[in-house]
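Can anyone check this?
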Amino acid sequence: MEMSYGKTEEAFFRLLRMGLRRADADFPVRLAAEEWERVWKMAREQALTGVVFDGVCQLPEEGRPPKGLVFRWLSAVQGIEQANRKLNRYAVKVSARFRREGFRSAILKGQGNALWYPNPLHRTPGDIDIWLEGGRERIMAYVRRYVPNAGARYHHVDFPVLKDVEVEVHFTPSWLSAWGDNRRLQRWFAEKADGQFAHEVELPEGAGSVSVPTEEVNRIFLLLHIYRHFFDEGIGLRQLADYLLLLERGCTGEERRRAAELLERFRLGRFASAVMYILQRIFGMEEKFLLVPPSAKEGEFVLREIMRTGNFGQYNAG
């Protein structure tokens, strides 16, 4: 059964769509001061402060929030811009350092995904996740030269060499719990690795260039990232916004067929159907961009959890 949302939630979703597309949109709703406070709260909980503010800025003067809230919101957005500038510089610096040490690399998620946004500096940033070529043993030997007690997980090791930004060094982009599924996934990542390390993009404001995953790999990797965090730390609408903007870049029929086939091979098809539903229901994504048919039943379940827990489960009371 489709969830129904109140006036404030629907206003939040509409502003989100406006901010993501920078397009003129009908916004007939007039919100009271306390309703605007709730929209602001939702934007922060979902790590979409800057994007929703971009939607607010498209409203006529008489339809905007109270000036006191606008100033608070603007201050928060300026902080996001500064954080992104710092992350962009660090991403370039870290990539260059590893290149000098003989490791090719690719920045996962984060600053690469931000390039798809109308204003890349308004995506709320996180840490630096960097995938290195070279294999687990070689990478760990290098990391432990600087962090002797570094503890590794299956797919990454923390590399705390920057004072104010976390760096995760990945042996592989991600993983699956089932042994057979994970073996197929790791084989696929290995097959695609060379193309990822060679895929360079320019970061904003002349920060420099880094390598990032191709759109082909991101169609699988970002969906897998959403899947893993949904069942672990929790997930927010920011990660769904990333995936929306990726899919709205478009792909050929063959690329779509191949992505759907891979999602089934890795047993992600059912979850992908839930995500497709949310991308249509909340973000208004057109049917032509769907990778697989949407599922309202699965999608409503996932959406309820997203709205309840906020970005990465930070607001989960349970």
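Reply from J.R.: I decoded it. The first strand starts at residue 105 and ends at 108.
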